[in-house]
Amino acid sequence: MKGVKILLGDPKKALIKLSIPAMISNLVFTLYNLADGVWVAGLGSSALSAVGIFFPIFMIFIALSVGLGIGASSAISRRIGAKDKVGADSTASHALVISLVVAATITSLLIFLETLLRIFGAEGEVLKLALDYSRVVVAGSVFLVFSNVSTGILNGEGSTKRAMYANVSGTLLNIVLDPVFIYVLGLGIVGAAYATVVSMMLTSLIYLHWFLSGKTYVTPTFKHFKFDGKVVFDILRVGIPSSFSMITMSVAMVFLNLIIINYGGPEGIAVFTSAWRIVSFGFIPLFGMAGALTAITGAAFGAKNMENLKKAYYHAIKIAATIELFAFTLIFLTASKSAVLFTYSELSANIYDELVIALRILPSFLPFTPLGIMTVATFQGIGKGEYALAVNILRTLVFQLSFAYVFALSYGFYGVLVGITLGNVVASLVAFFLGNFTIKALERVVV
């Protein structure tokens, strides 16, 4: 009940208490992502490019599972706010059933992997490496989906600390296994894939143990499971738009990769992918706070408490913007040092100068990002997944892509980086306007 009490208490305090565990979890995952890139960099720029080309596809898998988890989190928190424990349990059970269907769908894509990778620009040695890596990851996708949906369930009940323990355990194992599988066992890029799958399996087993032993407030059970279309609709109304929101990022990444290849070649892909791993550190507090904000605003909306909803939304933006300003400054000032992480090998040293410049351009949008991400999180919390989707489409497919293409025409590879930055800034400002408008409209109808 501790997480539930926090969830229904002072929104400002809840935001901090529920965000910190999620931030720690995201920090460890980002460290893994960085470490994974560093170890793969030792295999050469072709290996980095292979992972970079598969990345948009992998992002689609993550989007489907995380989106479903967000849908479960929103639906569960709203039921907790309305004091409907039975409904929250049923929602969790339905979410896990849906996760198995999603996992089976992802695994079936093994048949089309080579075709997909070719469409995304892979060829020659890069294609071979990308295939070796992706086949293992796709085969183990059931663990990816289960763990992300389980994270959503625990976030929905305010148990972000417990979710942190499970995710950090798996991620730390991944960090340890990467060099062992890649270099000690001599598996190369396939070793990185095996390390990823084994770590996701551990996280899934931890969640499964908690659910079966009744250590969570929400109790998913299948003993007397009865399909309820209304529950499924409530999960998917937020889950599907959330998934599509993240998928638009992958789609945008595909087109960005094509633009980058055209203006920067395979080395451009390696530069962008490596720079993005560093910039991703700036998203750690944002995504942690966004997950907490979805649950808090969901509970407030379920309890029809618009005052708590507003407090949580504006306070989240204020704190996150301050953090992101610091993140931008830090990444900008340490660009020359950070670039060494991906260029220590003779095979990848040729991208050093471009990587330093990329690390000084891309993070410029970070201080504006909270305006968009916190708005999206609030839309998800109140069950308006379609609003969140609209905001992300504007950011990724409209502003980001169009700006990147237009600037690339005049300034080449660096123009792509500038376009991505400006596109994100404009989209964040538009999202904040829509968030304010929606909250004021809700105040007039929610009693």
From TrEMBL:
Subcellular location: Cell membrane
Topology relative to the membrane: Multi-pass membrane protein
A Gene Ontology cellular-component term: plasma membrane
Lineage top rank: taxon: Archaea
GO MF annotations in UniProt: antiporter activity; xenobiotic transmembrane transporter activity
Keywords: Cell membrane, Membrane, Transmembrane, Transmembrane helix, Transport
Transmembrane spans: 14-35, 47-71, 92-113, 133-154, 235-263, 275-301, 313-335, 355-377, 389-407, 413-434
InterPro entries attached to this UniProt entry: MATE_fam, MdtK-like, Membrane_Transporter-Flippase
Pfam short name (any one): MatE
UniProt xrefs under PANTHER family: MULTIDRUG RESISTANCE PROTEIN NORM-RELATED (PTHR43549:SF2), MULTIDRUG RESISTANCE PROTEIN YPNP-RELATED (PTHR43549)
Entry protein name: MATE efflux family protein
Source organism of the structure: Ferroglobus placidus (strain DSM 10642 / AEDII12DO)
